Amino acid sequence: MGPWPVSRGNTLISHKVRIPNREEPGSVNQIMNKRRFRADDPERKTWQDPETIFSAIGLSAGMTFVDIGCGEGYFALPAARRVGPEGKVFAADINADAIVALREQAANEGHRNLSAEVKTAEEAVFCEGCADIVFFGIDLHDFADPEQVILNAKKMLKPSGRLIDLDWKDEPMAFGPPSEIRLSVEKARSMIEAAGFRVLSVQDAGPYHYLIIADR
């Protein structure tokens, strides 16, 4: 979610994608099958800073934040810091190793407000009407049934809650997921609206991604 391969959440799956070779700037890109975003990836923060995104979506202390496809916690961990002890973070990922890493880091940082579970996005429903924000971090394009995942989000959100879809732009670039699986803004918006959401805004989120904010 430099700009890296396709993700299942922040956990990479087996699509072959091209990524920049950091050791040889400007050289022919490498082909990579799998990579998992680290929770503290410093290079990723140069093009996708969680705090900037959280400010854009209005995440604040005391809120409940649900991260679907959380990987090792690139968004879930800073969200736990931001919502504080009065808030709550629920996180789900299909990759068990990623969840183990997230739980360990959350424990090391003392985040008792973070709960992480091994779940597919299609089965991840942590609560009904409890969430202020349900967040898809560069992964809606990769879910087996994105329409069901969006309906799950609606079930979890409070009446005043917001759905956030951060995903790769559907335009030519030398890295990221293959073009045939990317969701254009129009396609993502259509799916979100078909589930009964109202799209409040669509904006750029750095050079490679778009950000859709919707409410019920």
Biggest sheet strand order reads: 7-6-5-8-9-11-10
In which range does the helix fraction lie?
10-25%
Count all strands and give the number: 11
CATH superfamily: Vaccinia Virus protein VP39
- CATH architecture grouping: 3-Layer(aba) Sandwich
Structure description:
The chain is an alpha/beta fold and 216 residues long. The chain has a single domain (7-215), classed as Rossmann fold (3-Layer(aba) Sandwich). 24% of the residues lie in helices and 27% in strands. It contains five helices and eleven strands. It has helices spanning 50-57, 76-83, 96-109, 146-156, 185-194, and strands at residues 7-8, 11-12, 17-19, 30-32, 64-68, 88-93, 114-118, 131-137, 157-168, 198-204, 209-215. The strands form three sheets. It has a seven-stranded mixed sheet, with helices on both faces. A two-stranded antiparallel ribbon has the order 1-2. A hairpin with a 4-residue loop joins strand 10 and strand 11. The longest helix is centred in the middle third of the chain and has 14 residues, at 96-109. The radius of gyration is 16 Å and the shape is globular.
